[in-house]
Amino acid sequence: MQADSAQLDGIFQALADPTRRAILTQLGHGPAAVGELAKPFDMALPSFMKHVAALEQSGLIRTSKSGRVRTCTLERGTFALVDRWLGQQRRLWSERTDRLEAFVTRGDT
Length: 109
Known about the structure:
- This protein has 5 helices and 3 strands.
- By secondary structure, the protein is α+β, with helices and mostly antiparallel strands.
């Protein structure tokens, strides 16, 4: 669980940036070269590569290089970790709101 917590910290830190979220959205359509991913953004390639590095360090993507082309691919397993954590939080808060509703409407404790 501690390892998951550290990994979740990195994932959510990476997801906090809108450029990185946009990159992930693009990669949802399939693997893409860094040059292709960078086109919609008004920034220098070294700056863009910092976003790619942050996503790779968080485990959300992996990259591979063939010649001069670096290709990015989503790491779907990492999204399962996030989904599992969010599911736990959803259940926890759902139970709490159900108990609150029962207390307010029926006076149950």
